[in-house]
């Protein structure tokens, strides 16, 4: 892999990259950065957690003129949390160059945003809906925009942002540099690319073969009623540093988070019905480790980058393979290892095999964790905590008392008693969750080869790559295909709330939130709200 020195980047940008701890470029960065520096339009596809943000962020920050007092670059993301996360990465990359960037997303006070816009940011990172609000209010002008980046473009289209994106792109000068990043290349993305990109280079880092993944994947077959007990045992057994647990619906997430809290875990829920403030709080706690279990709907599946997530647990099987790949991609990022567990009820086994087939990755069957394994896991955890204190030498004030106690009692018994206390009693409260219906296997056979859909990207298949990439999807590597087949709509997905404007549509199960905060009257087709995850 290339080092960042080899790209001919500005010294201030190189310094930022070094401070961020990046040593070598990832495959998608190695391919994208030189092309972007030449000003080529491009379409980028690569696996989860492989540094796509910096792949566009580095060349962008490198080329921005800091004397510019008008908006010269626009990055569009599907969700608020992603806008925040991408903005933070851009901020870090541009710190030494003195670049001004600003996230603009719904659910945040618009007056505050207008004030921030007065500071003349050169880069705006926003969600399409709120961007359009500002454009209509004339608080954002796109006349001087030279670079446009669409992150998670397929998700934005899935969420119904096609029209918004088109309206925005039409307002940007035609002479511009456009980059589009997408996990998959359905025809609507190809159409969008045709309409708005000039002779784009397709940069795709997807290994043809499934190589050793950094994410270990396992599933447990169980009945709906066994899930919660299995979950607590699994957490005890595996002792994750940070874990994300995905549930199918908002109700599920609320119930699960509450149940976990009752059992003594530091868990909180995240879904689209929470206010922006609540969402930000939950994410802050998760990032700083004050909670170590995040229970979420698919609102957290895309793009979220929290370091230290060692485990992803699909409490409910995801609706489609794409969602599976994005969910499990919250761990095993930047070459680190991670483990993904999936709970599958007997009626869902076919659907699991379907996911395996599309992702071309075997998911290993594991038995239900036993009570003994759970207890052993907890005890190990206690021992680790004790050793940690010992190593950090944070215990001197207890030494006097320890000596006194040791004069009277046996050391093994004393330590065992202390460990019991530290481990805590398992609170065996009976927990009842509202059952969810099983996910049905698809009737239609899904042909990976002809579909043109790819899930994830890849760390490349290059042999010298120390991060081993998992391989998902197939495909020829360029161009995508002609098939229009999409997975059925993700009916029960959590598209969150806080819609800013737009008529609220209702559909079975779907999590359209409440809290409509906008006052814009949009007379057009309802769309899903821009929403997903928080970051950093
Ligand atoms: N060259 C690099 N060396 C080390 N770490 C890196 C490098 N580039 C990016 N990272 C880190 O890797 C993590 C994942 O990056 P990022 O969020 O951009 O992934 P992504 O490809 O956009 O994933 P997703 O598909 O899930 O959105 C981030 O924490 C980022 O800071
Ligand atoms: Mg990303």
UniProtKB/TrEMBL annotation:
<feature type="compositionally biased region" description="Basic and acidic residues">
    <location>
        <begin position="488"/>
        <end position="497"/>
    </location>
</feature>
<feature type="compositionally biased region" description="Basic and acidic residues">
    <location>
        <begin position="519"/>
        <end position="536"/>
    </location>
</feature>
<keyword id="KW-0547">Nucleotide-binding</keyword>
<dbReference type="GO" id="GO:0005524">
    <property type="term" value="F:ATP binding"/>
</dbReference>
<dbReference type="GO" id="GO:0005840">
    <property type="term" value="C:ribosome"/>
</dbReference>
<dbReference type="InterPro" id="IPR011545">
    <property type="entry name" value="DEAD/DEAH_box_helicase_dom"/>
</dbReference>
<feature type="compositionally biased region" description="Gly residues">
    <location>
        <begin position="454"/>
        <end position="480"/>
    </location>
</feature>
<dbReference type="InterPro" id="IPR027417">
    <property type="entry name" value="P-loop_NTPase"/>
</dbReference>
<dbReference type="GO" id="GO:0003724">
    <property type="term" value="F:RNA helicase activity"/>
</dbReference>
<feature type="short sequence motif" description="Q motif">
    <location>
        <begin position="2"/>
        <end position="30"/>
    </location>
</feature>
<dbReference type="GO" id="GO:0005829">
    <property type="term" value="C:cytosol"/>
</dbReference>
<keyword id="KW-0963">Cytoplasm</keyword>
<keyword id="KW-0378">Hydrolase</keyword>
<dbReference type="GO" id="GO:0033592">
    <property type="term" value="F:RNA strand annealing activity"/>
</dbReference>
<keyword id="KW-0347">Helicase</keyword>
<dbReference type="Pfam" id="PF00271">
    <property type="entry name" value="Helicase_C"/>
</dbReference>
<dbReference type="InterPro" id="IPR001650">
    <property type="entry name" value="Helicase_C-like"/>
</dbReference>
<feature type="domain" description="DEAD-box RNA helicase Q">
    <location>
        <begin position="2"/>
        <end position="30"/>
    </location>
</feature>
<dbReference type="InterPro" id="IPR014014">
    <property type="entry name" value="RNA_helicase_DEAD_Q_motif"/>
</dbReference>
<dbReference type="InterPro" id="IPR000629">
    <property type="entry name" value="RNA-helicase_DEAD-box_CS"/>
</dbReference>
<feature type="domain" description="Helicase C-terminal">
    <location>
        <begin position="214"/>
        <end position="376"/>
    </location>
</feature>
<feature type="region of interest" description="Disordered">
    <location>
        <begin position="442"/>
        <end position="536"/>
    </location>
</feature>
<keyword id="KW-0067">ATP-binding</keyword>
<dbReference type="InterPro" id="IPR014001">
    <property type="entry name" value="Helicase_ATP-bd"/>
</dbReference>
<dbReference type="Pfam" id="PF00270">
    <property type="entry name" value="DEAD"/>
</dbReference>
<dbReference type="GO" id="GO:0009409">
    <property type="term" value="P:response to cold"/>
</dbReference>
<comment type="similarity">
    <text>Belongs to the DEAD box helicase family.</text>
</comment>
<dbReference type="InterPro" id="IPR050547">
    <property type="entry name" value="DEAD_box_RNA_helicases"/>
</dbReference>
<protein>
    <recommendedName>
        <fullName>ATP-dependent RNA helicase CshA</fullName>
        <ecNumber>3.6.4.13</ecNumber>
    </recommendedName>
</protein>
<dbReference type="InterPro" id="IPR044742">
    <property type="entry name" value="DEAD/DEAH_RhlB"/>
</dbReference>
<feature type="domain" description="Helicase ATP-binding">
    <location>
        <begin position="33"/>
        <end position="203"/>
    </location>
</feature>
<feature type="compositionally biased region" description="Low complexity">
    <location>
        <begin position="498"/>
        <end position="518"/>
    </location>
</feature>
<dbReference type="GO" id="GO:0016787">
    <property type="term" value="F:hydrolase activity"/>
</dbReference>
């Amino acid at each position: 892999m290339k080092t960042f020195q080899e790209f001919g980047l500005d010294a201030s940008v190189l310094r930022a990259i070094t401070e961020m701890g990046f040593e070598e470029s990832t495959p998608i960065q190695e391919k994208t950065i030189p092309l972007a520096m030449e000003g080529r339009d491009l379409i980028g596809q690569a696996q989860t957690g492989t540094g796509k943000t910096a792949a566009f962020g580095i060349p962008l920050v490198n080329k921005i003129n800091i004397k510019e007092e008008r908006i010269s670059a626009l990055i569009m993301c599907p969700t608020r949390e992603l806008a925040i996360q991408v903005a933070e990465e851009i901020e870090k990359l541009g710190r030494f160059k003195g670049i001004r960037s600003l996230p603009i997303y719904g659910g945040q006070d618009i007056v505050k945003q207008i004030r921030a816009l007065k500071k003349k940011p050169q880069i705006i990172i926003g969600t399409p809906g709120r961007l359009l609000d500002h454009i209509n209010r004339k608080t954002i002008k796109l006349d001087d925009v030279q670079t446009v980046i669409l992150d998670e473009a397929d998700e934005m289209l899935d969420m119904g942002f096609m029209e918004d994106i088109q309206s925005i792109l039409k307002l940007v000068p035609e002479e511009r540099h456009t980059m589009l990043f997408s996990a998959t290349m359905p025809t609507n993305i190809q159409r969008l690319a045709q309409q708005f990109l000039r002779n784009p280079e397709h940069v795709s880092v997807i290994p043809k073969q499934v190589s050793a993944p950094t994410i270990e994947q396992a599933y447990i077959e169980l009945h709906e009623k066994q899930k919660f007990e299995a979950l607590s045992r699994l957490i005890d057994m595996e002792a994750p540093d940070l874990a994300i647990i995905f549930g199918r619906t908002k109700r599920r997430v609320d119930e699960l988070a509450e149940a976990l809290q009752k059992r003594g875990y530091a868990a909180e829920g995240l879904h689209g019905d929470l206010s922006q403030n609540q969402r930000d709080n939950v994410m802050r706690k998760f990032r700083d480790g004050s909670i170590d279990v995040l229970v979420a709907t698919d609102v957290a599946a895309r793009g979220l980058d929290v370091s230290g997530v060692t485990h992803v647990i699909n409490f409910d099987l995801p609706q489609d393979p794409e969602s599976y790949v994005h969910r499990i991609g919250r761990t095993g990022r930047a070459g680190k290892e991670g483990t993904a567990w999936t709970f599958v009820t007997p009626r869902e086994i076919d659907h699991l095999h379907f996911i395996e087939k599309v992702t071309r990755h075997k998911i290993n069957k594991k038995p239900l964790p036993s009570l003994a394994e759970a207890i052993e896991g907890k005890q190990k955890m206690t021992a680790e905590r004790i050793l940690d204190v010992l190593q950090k030498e944070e215990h001197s004030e207890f030494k006097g008392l320890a000596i006194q106690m040791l004069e009277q009692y046996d050391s093994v018994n004393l330590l065992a008693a202390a460990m019991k206390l530290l481990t805590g009693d398992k609170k065996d409260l009976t927990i009842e969750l509202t059952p969810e219906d099983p996910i049905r296997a698809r009737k239609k056979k899904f042909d990976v080869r002809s579909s043109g859909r790819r899930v994830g990207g890849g760390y490349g298949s290059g042999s010298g790559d120390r991060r081993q990439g998992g391989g998902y999807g197939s495909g020829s590597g360029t161009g995508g295909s002609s098939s229009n087949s999409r997975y059925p709509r993700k009916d029960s997905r959590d598209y969150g709330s806080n819609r800013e404007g737009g008529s609220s549509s209702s559909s079975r199960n779907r999590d359209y939130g409440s809290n409509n905060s906008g006052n814009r009257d949009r007379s057009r087709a309802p769309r899903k709200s821009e929403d997903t995850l928080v970051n950093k």
